[in-house]
Write the structure tokens for this entry.
Amino acid sequence: MEDMNPAWITGEAREYTLQLFDGTRRRVYFTDTETAYPHGKLIVSRTDTEGVITLGNQSFIDMSGYQESELVGQPHSILRHPDMPAAAFQNLWETIRSGRQWHGYVKNLRKDGGYYWVYATVVPNVRQGRIIGYTSVRREPSRQKVVAAEAMYRDMR
Ligand SMILES: Cc1cc2nc3c(=O)[nH]c(=O)nc-3n(C[C@H](O)[C@H](O)[C@H](O)COP(=O)(O)O)c2cc1C
């Protein structure tokens, strides 16, 4: 995946090199600017079986800061934030690959270097007994749960 470009960033950023599960790396820049969850909206995206984005709704696109054309066809880890521990996503993939639903709090990285928190439910899309992809539906997380997730993820890292 393409590194982030410092020209995309709004505000003062730190730099970090993510080690992705497939062995590749991505240089990212991140700031302390939070974008509030859009009240009452669902943020929805779909992937193929490998986690490549196949579609996202308008809230997904808006919150990411990217254009739709910059998201579709990219690995979903385009939104991975350095504060998210790898173990959280290992657990997600184990759960959904075995056909079950996964729920969790996720801190996502925007194109402009800022972040947003979601409460995600990820489900396998099954056709004729086979998993053909995955859907994530995200809701607004409570502030209390975000604070707890921040502490838990800090301990996990
Ligand atoms: C449907 C679906 C939605 C996902 N949504 C996100 C997301 O919003 N943010 C994120 O960082 N990872 C998301 N992931 C997990 C990524 O695929 C990936 O595992 C994660 O970003 C960590 O990257 P890595 O597995 O390459 O190390 C999603 C996966 C699936 C299947």
